[in-house]
Amino acid sequence: MELIIVFAPLLAFLTAGLFGKQIGDAGAQFVTCAGVIIAAFFSVVMFMDVVFDGDTRVITLATWMSSGDFQVNWALRFDQLTAVMLCVINIVSACVHVYSIGYMSHDKAKGRFMAYLSLFTFAMLMLVTSDNLVQLFFGWEGVGLASYLLIGFWNHKDSANKAAVKAFIVNRVGDFGLALGIMATFVVFGTVQFDAIFEQAEEMSALTFDFLGFELHALTTISLLLFMGAVGKSAQLGLHTWLPDAMEGPTPVSALSHAATMVTAGVFLLARFSPVFEYAPFALEVVTVVGACTAFVAATIGLTQFDIKRVIAYSTMSQLGYMFFAIGVSAYGAAIFHLMTHAFFKALLFLGAGSVIHAMSDEQDMRKMGSIWKEIPYTYVMMWIGSLALAGMPFFAGYFSKDIILEAAFAADSKVGMFAFWMGIAAALMTAFYSWRLILMTFHGKPRASKKVMDHLHESPSVMISPLVVLATGALFAGYVFYGGFVGSAHHDTEVHHEVTALGDSHVEEEPVDTFKWDKEHFWGEAIKVLPENDTVEAAHSVPFWVKKLPIVVGLVGIFFAYVVYLWREGLAVKIAAAFAPLHRLFFNKWYFDELYDRIFVTKAWSLGRFFSVRGDRKTIDGFGPDGISSLSMRMGGVFSKFQSGFLFQYAFIMIIGLFALVTWLMYRITLGGY
Amino acid sequence: MSSLSLAYLMPALPEIFMALSGLGLLVVGVFLGNGGTRTISWSVAVSFAVAALLLLGLDWDRIETFNGMFVLDRFTGFMKLFVLVGLITSVMISVRFLYQVQIARFEYPVLMLFAGLGMMIMISANNMLVLYMGLELQSLALYVLAAFRRDQNRAAEAGIKYFILGALASGMLLFGTSMIYGYTGSIDFDVIGQTLANNPVADTGLIVGLVFVLVSMAFKVSAVPFHMWTPDVYEGAPTSVTAFFAIVPKLAAMAILVRVLYGPFMSISADWQQIIWFMAAASLIVSSFAGLAQKNIKRLMAYSSIGNMGYALIGVAAGTQVGVGAVVLYMIIYMIMTAGVFSVILMMRRNGIGAEDIEDLSGLSTNSPLLAAALAILLFSMAGIPPMAGFFGKLLIFNAAVSAGMFNLAVLGVLASVVAAFYYLRIIKVMYFDEAVDPFDQQIAFSKRAVLLLSVLFITLFILKPDALIATSMSAAAALFTG
């Protein structure tokens, strides 16, 4: 079962990738969908096993590397954290696979696309099931590669290629940190196995090591380096610039990789390393601040964008910010909880947006939409559900997870915690606003699309709608059902729920849980470690009433303003933008991050690269090296051939000269050199 | 040992048989006329085979005869055996060719027989004059063969050039012999060796004599700077003759060079090592660079053979038993590879006309993929790329040079092989990546196919059991060091 979960997508990838021609498009679609759906089914079974029966396990498959003390295995680790991630990845991936059949129906390379999706899924599964850092890095790079391939899938588009390269390079910066973190871990702990690291973490908490004359706290250094990797992969402020551009990829990709799974790998990594982070308080503070700033900045940018997918992309980035500052205040459970609910409602939003784009003949600009809700009612409803969940309206998934994060931040009772709380509240306001801005601009108002597009308007086929229904189920119920397990307090009498949403058409399994207690201690087991004094999730249950209700209030306010500005008082938006022109410019231009990086790094790197390639490589190394030597060889060949004049007397002459030279040399040696 | 007893003649039995059958076939040829060329050719091949069997039947422990002028030992026996194999191969691949270019005259195979006889005598020579006699018998036959297509200017020119330069080289050999006789009082290898061993300081005159002898032999193996005839003769002579030139006389000349240096002149090895060193280095450099500029494949093979002689000379220069063993093995592998390559070159005929340019091979891989693959394997082996046999030949040579402390020569050899790899690989590139031209004629003689197949098989399968041949080569080399 364990092997099926991880390797079914790989098998599907290999089949569709290598024999795509033989099995045809339909065959590739079938194989990949079947592979992922099987994996999803078994993931749910595994979730039951691991979470309800506490049956965690590590399966060693083979030795990968063994060199001195350095030992790395191919191993699959199944604990509660992994089980949650498996369900999220495989269910969302299954939905996206099925959805892609419809979405990519006009594409020429369906088989290749499906193969890439399966490859991506496999890499992501490798990442979360790894039981050591090196295998995790393998998965980490694997998703990076698959993401590169998928973003650049429409490789006839120049912008797609550029976005793919950008995503790869920006991620490389983060990966550099992660690689350093892995090396530092090995230096400090002498191993890269998770269990061995976590056991030693406590005793290492006072350790410092010397680096270039600086005394560095070992665990803080490791934590910050790992966080650097997470920043790159999860598009946190600083290394986020690739995420909006990654929307050049087909929409299912955005839903799978850039909303639900890959970008959350950083959150997963940090949660996985909770036993280490717990002993590195400074690193946690950094994580909190970066996360909070990301949540805020991304939300401000989201307010001003017009590309429907970019708005959702910035909202993703913003929500990832929430997850990070949750981790920063030691609310790991809350972060993973939000990760899960977010995966459902954000994938739903993306796929819904894809459905809109599909309906609008590949139009992505919201200024050219409007008044289409009657034509595509199912998509419209789905978008509503997704947006309600995103805005954190009561009883939708996002409400539970976002609230607990904000409460935990408040309950942390520290400066950074409060900072994160208020930034989070501000971001929540803006989130609600731009979500409804998106809905209103897209579906309501006057039609702004060309007549041809409007005539062609059509609801998506059921193969695209049914995955949406599955995800919507998650967006509706995941929060309510899992609240107790992920973040519920053992000391409160929380209701015991025994419903688990699974794959298929809102297929629900009944699971009698008599002995099982549905609270966070039992749920997470050993997978997440929180020091008692840091247990903010516990404290979050007893924050003041206003703190609990504030997110809802600001959410409602945001929605209200959106209605005012975009439906009831049309034209107001332009006036507001004009009134706050500098601010609007800042937001609209994404805080000038791209321009800044372009000025500081990209142009410099280009000119440096050009210097090395033209002056260094082509002119110096090639000129004197390969090219120089080969042209010299050719010239010498010509010279030697000239000796071959064909004249007999010359040949004889050369022979005699050779004879004389040899005799002279030996005579010289005998008379002068002597014996 | 004055009576012509049978035991007296026994060691030279293969040579005596070859001489008699040559005379006999000459008479038969006169009666049959040119129409009997095929018959004579196969008879010659059979003669070679019989000679080889006779040779195998003899006891290879060192034995001298004809008053110590003729010697048979493990080394000479082994080398003569492979010379005979080369001769058989050369005859086999040329029969059809003679008819194709309308030079099917019965003298051709008979001349090869006499050239072979000369080589056999030369290898077994234990006396400077016997050496000269064998060398001349071989050379005179080869001069005629080079000019065999006498109605063609290029062939005639090649023959004349070869003859005049060859005469010059022979003169040098005789002059050198006279100087050696003057300073040692003998032309017998054993006596010369004894005299030099007893006299630790060699006379200058003797050294000069040795240089003259070495130069004449270097001419035969076409080492730089005595190689000038090679490209012109290879290009001008009929292709079958070129193949013969490349395959057999090189082996014989290298054998006698080794015998002379490691026999009578072993005690002054410090002197001749320098000469060989220089010739090896010069051969490597000139052949590898000059080869780059060639367009004619026969001319390219001439430079290739010069380069290969350069590698063999590295082994000779080492002055050790390992070096000689490496030379023996290298020459054998070279001979087999060359036989394969030339059987392909002989197949290069388009509409009945021989194609000789590298460009003519364009797109061979599409027209005749098997032929292209075979040639590619042979060329990879020539370039010394593992796992082909050619790699092991070079490996042993370099190994010998390194263990003799001749690092600079080994390095030079490796560098030259890099440059030379270019012109081998260029042919492969032309075959596989260039636009296909008209296909070659498809009728290919069975014997050529057989030679090509055996050659390719040997080269690819050598790696499976390299020890056998290496051990034999080494034991052949050991024969030079025990006496």
Question: Would you spell out the secondary-structure blueprint of this structure?
Answer:
The complex is a heterodimer of chains A (675) and B (483).
Chain A: H1 2-18, H2 20-53, E1 57-67, E2 70-78, H3 80-103, H4 110-129, H5 133-151, H6 158-189, H7 194-201, E3 208-211, E4 214-217, H8 218-233, H9 242-245, H10 251-260, H11 265-272, H12 274-277, H13 281-304, H14 308-328, H15 332-359, H16 377-391, H17 397-411, H18 415-443, H19 451-456, H20 462-487, E5 499-501, E6 508-510, H21 520-524, H22 536-540, H23 545-568, H24 572-579, H25 581-588, H26 593-624, H27 626-643, H28 648-673
Chain B: H1 6-9, H2 13-32, H3 37-57, E1 63-65, E2 70-72, H4 74-100, H5 107-124, H6 128-146, H7 153-184, H8 189-198, H9 204-221, H10 229-236, H11 239-247, H12 249-262, H13 269-292, H14 297-318, H15 321-347, E3 349-350, E4 353-354, H16 364-367, H17 369-382, H18 389-403, H19 407-433, H20 446-461, H21 466-482
Antiparallel strand pairs in B: 1-2, 3-4
Helical residue percent band of chain B? over 70%
Whole-angstrom Rg of chain B:
21 Å
Oligomer: heterodimer
Low-confidence stretches of chain B: none
Give the tally of β-strands of chain A: 6
Shape of chain A: globular
The tally of helices of chain B reads 21
Count of the separate structural domains of chain B: 1
* Strand order in space, largest sheet of chain A: 1-2
Order of helices and strands of chain B: HHHEEHHHHHHHHHHHHEEHHHHHH
SS-based structural class of chain A?
A: mainly alpha
Measured by DSSP, the beta-strand proportion of chain A falls in 5-15%
Characterize the structure shown.
With 675 residues, chain A is mainly alpha-helical. Among the domains of chain A are: 280-490 and 515-588, no CATH class; 643-675. In chain A, 72% of the residues lie in helices and 5% in strands. In chain A, a hairpin with a 2-residue loop joins strand 1 (57-67) and strand 2 (70-78). In chain A, helix 3 runs antiparallel to helix 20, helix 13 (281-304) runs parallel beside helix 18 (415-443) and helix 14 (308-328) packs across helix 17 (397-411). Chain A is globular, with a radius of gyration of 30 Å. Chain A starts with a helix and ends with a helix. Chain B contains 21 helices and 4 strands. In chain B, strand 3 (349-350) and strand 4 form a beta hairpin. Chain B has one domain. Classes of the chains: A mainly alpha (675), B mainly alpha (483).
